[in-house]
Amino acid sequence: MKNCERLVSSGRFRPNQPGLLIAQSYEDVLTSKEPILGSATLCVISLQRNEHRIYTATLGDSGYLVVRRGRIVERSVHQKHTFNTPFQLACPPPVQSRNFYQD
Q1: Which cofactor does it need (predicted)?
Q2: How far is 35 from 14, CA to CA, in rounded Å?
Q3: What is residue 20's predicted lDDT score, i.e. its pLDDT?
Q4: Residues 56, 64 contacting (CB under 8 angstroms)
Q5: What distance in Å separates the CA atoms of residue 36 and residue 29, rounded to the nearest whole number?
Q6: pTM of the full predicted structure?
Q7: CA–CA gap between residue 83 and residue 79 (Å, rounded)
Q8: What's the DSSP call for residue 68?
Q9: What is residue 24's DSSP assignment?
Q10: Coil/strand/helix, residue 62
C-alpha cells in the first residue's frame, strides 16, 4: 500500500482506474531491489464526488459494501482458489514458489 500511496501522492493515478494503481504498485514491488516477504489481499476505492461515482478494485477476500439510506446497494465479491485460500499478491522466494497457488 505504500507504493499505492506514493503513486497517488505523485499524481500518477487515474481515479477511474484503481485496478491500474494496483498493477503499477505491484510492478514496483516486483522490480524492487529489496525483497518483500508476505502476501496481501486488498481493496482500493476511489470516490469521485463530482461524477457521483465510485470506482473499485479488489483482490481476494478484502471487500467493501456501499450503503445508501440504510440499504446495501453494492458489495464486492470475494475471490478465492478454494476454501480459506483467497487470491493474494505475493512475491514468494523462488525456492518456495511451488508451495503457492499461482495464476
Answers
A1: Mg(2+); Mn(2+)
A2: 27
A3: 95
A4: yes
A5: 7
A6: 0.80
A7: 10
A8: E
A9: H
A10: coil
CA-to-CA distance for 4 and 21, rounded, in angstroms? 6
Residue 9 exposed, middle or buried by CB count within 10 Å (0-12, 13-18, 19+): exposed
Q: What are phi and psi of 4, to 5 degrees?
A: -60, -45
Other Cβ atoms less than 10 A from the Cβ of 46: the count is 17
85, three cell numbers: 485460500
93, 86 contact by CB (below 8 A): no
Contact 44, 7 (CB under 8 A): no
Decide: 45 and 54 in contact? Cβ < 8 Å: yes
Number of H helices, E strands in the chain: 2, 8
Grouped pLDDT means (10 residues each) for the chain, 103 residues: 90 92 90 81 94 95 95 95 89 70 67
pLDDT at position 92, please?
A: 73
CB-count burial class (<10 Å; 0-12, 13-18, 19+) for 7: middle
Cell 499505492 identifies what position? 4
How far from chain centre, in Å, is Cα 44?
A: 6
